[in-house]
Amino acid sequence: MLYLVVVEPLLPLLVGAGLFMLTRSHLIAVGLSALGFGAWGALYFSRLSLDGPLSGALYGLGSEGFTSGLAAFAGSGYVRLIAAEARRLGTERAAIVHAVGIAFAATAFVLLLVTNGSDKVGLGLYLVLLAWSLGAAVATGSFGGVVAMAAFALVAMVHGIWGAALATGSRDAGQAYIAMFYVPPLLVPVLATAAFGRWLGSSLRARRSHERPG
């Protein structure tokens, strides 16, 4: 279960990030990841398909290649975002945003997993996420990093709900993953909050700099 909800989604993301760091090319990172994971999917599903090996292989190649390519692109884009924010904000500020964001995502996943995807826990975590988005944007001036970490946290929350459904043997475990479609609309308030926080932080820092003597 943990392999399905944790390892399998994270592996192409990490591979894409690693390939981009080695090649500095999104195209190569995405292409190699899609080909590699697509080949694995073709081999895996060719053995399981009831319609024959060829049908299963084509399905595995398409589904695994496409989804892994998207995940690899997210990973390579994330590496580029970290580098850009480190240059603009400084290494320390960028590291704080991303470290806290990853820690929050991991915590949210575990909490939803052990509480069987509790709606109250999910709502509380989302409100904390909004508060963190505001505070992080004000304190560091980050926007892209805050939004990226919020998106990562929301995806982790969906996987926590999905994992809880799988662990309890729920017949609706597959439908639990439909919550992934709520991630884009849930990001809209995060975008607004992070944008306001960045503006507020910039205004406060500018005011303090003008108030300094000399």
Give a verbal description of the structure.
- It is a single chain.
- The protein is 86% helix and 0% strand.
- The chain is built from eight helices and no strands.
- α5 runs parallel beside α8.
- The mean pLDDT is 88.
- The chain crosses the membrane at residues 6-22, 27-45, 65-83, 95-115, 121-139, 146-165, 177-200.
For this entry, give a set of tags.
mainly alpha, 8 helices
Quick description:
This protein has 214 residues and is an all-alpha fold. The protein is built from eight helices and no strands.
Topology:
Layout: H1 2-23, H2 26-46, H3 53-89, H4 91-114, H5 119-140, H6 144-167, H7 173-176, H8 183-211
Helix pairs in contact: 1-2, 1-3, 1-6, 2-3, 3-4, 4-5, 4-6, 5-6, 5-8, 6-8
Intertermini distance = 62 Å
Note the beta-strand portion: under 5%
What is the average per-residue confidence, as pLDDT, rounded to a whole number? 88
* Rg calculated over all Cα atoms: 20 Å
Could you state the order of secondary-structure elements as H and E?
A: HHHHHHHH
**Principal-axes shape call:** flat
Total helical segments:
8
Which residue ranges are poorly predicted, with pLDDT under 50 across at least 5 consecutive positions?
Answer: none
Work out the helicity level.
Answer: over 70%
The description of the largest β-sheet is: none
Structural class: mainly alpha
The overall strand count is 0
Protein name: Urea transporter
Transmembrane segments: 6-22, 27-45, 65-83, 95-115, 121-139, 146-165, 177-200
Organism: Bradyrhizobium campsiandrae
Keywords: Membrane, Transmembrane, Transmembrane helix
